[in-house]
Amino acid sequence: MYPFIRLGKTIAKSTLLQLQGKTLAPTDTSEISFVSGIHDIDNFLEMNNGRIFTLFDLGRTDFAIRTGLGKKLLANRWGLVVAGSSIQYRKRVRLFDKITIKTRLCAIDERWFYIEQTMYNQGTPSSQALLRTGVTNLMTGKTIPTQTVLTAIGHGDLLMPADDWVAAWIAADKLRNFPID
């Protein structure tokens, strides 16, 4: 089940931080923390890999709210979309482990925002994801150009070319055949 209670807490806390002036620039790193609960654990007594991806949603929610994007999403009837992702798992997360998720924007092109997210288990990196994300018009479903989004949040001059490893992932993903059947 989706962690709606954690989502609500994340939205409330992030909004409060933003109202207190603890905002983030798009080049800053968002950080949220929580404790792994029984609802996160699978039959191997560790955090389920799908749950890790779901919890990364919360990190992106905090990042969006604290950069001011959250308000623009509501005002412009925009939404967020994940168009691609890759993840590596390195360390197990067990019941009651203290987890921190760090979220940062690592590249921008004309259509997509590339986000790197890392989950830390008691201070040690346990998993890392790279995501291709976008902002969409909720009425049409079309992707909003990144320049339009950046201008809306007051950072229209921001350029962020991809590091080599991100560029390699982007190039490799373009080679992938998506099934048409």
UniProtKB/TrEMBL annotation:
InterPro entries: HotDog_dom_sf, THEM6_lcsJ_thioesterase
Lineage start: Bacteria, Pseudomonadati, Pseudomonadota, Gammaproteobacteria, Moraxellales
Full protein name: Acyl-CoA thioesterase FadM
